[in-house]
Design brief:
Low-confidence stretches: 1-23
Shape: elongated
Largest sheet: none
Mean pLDDT: 80
Distance between the termini: 84 Å
Order of helices and strands: HHHHHHHH
Length: 177
């Protein structure tokens, strides 16, 4: 009788554990989909660093999956990126992540897409920079400066793109090359 009871308890515990794991997996999948959808929607915006990116759905899914896997749903909720229902509050770029999570988010972003190339193409398409100035501007918006900007931006500093404006203005002002 004792072994039957022990076996029954073991089965119940394993079912409970798998149900919890399933709920977590469901939360992760739901959060990842919400982040991905928000990124795709953000692409239609004309403001913020996202305006210079042209992320495809595949890249947006990679980012959603990466943020959920590497930062976690709970920390994304605490940062204000996700609601308790795993929906994005406003947009992904409105969150204010702790510094370590902002670095991780930046790493995920750059691991899923060629951000430097996207920004350079976005600047060229903007029509605000002449073709003669583009080589200088492209030196300013290198991998290192873009990573620093996105890390600051993910920490809530919505003025972070301004750090690149002054060096870009030097290019535009005549210090080309």
């Amino acid at each position: 009788m004792r072994s039957v009871l022990t076996a029954a308890v073991a089965v119940l515990l394993s079912l409970a554990a798998s149900a919890c794991a399933g709920a977590s997996t469901d939360d992760d999948a739901e959060a990842s989909r919400a982040i991905s959808a928000s990124i795709v929607k953000q692409q239609q915006s004309n403001s913020g660093p996202g305006a210079l990116l042209s992320l495809q759905r595949k890249e947006a899914r990679c980012i959603g999956d990466g943020l959920v896997k590497r930062i976690g749903v709970e920390r994304l909720r605490k940062s204000g990126m996700l609601t308790d229902e795993n929906q994005v509050k406003g947009s992904v770029t409105e969150a204010s992540l702790p510094k370590a999570d902002a670095r991780t988010a930046t790493s995920v972003l750059f691991g899923c897409a060629d951000i430097e190339a996207m920004v350079e193409k976005g600047l060229a398409r903007s029509g605000n920079i002449s073709s003669k100035m583009l080589p200088c501007v492209n030196k300013v918006v290198d991998d290192q400066s873009l990573r620093a900007m996105f890390t600051d931006y993910f920490q809530g500093d919505k003025n972070a793109p301004q750090a690149l404006v002054q060096p870009m203005m030097r290019c535009i002002g005549g210090n080309v090359g």
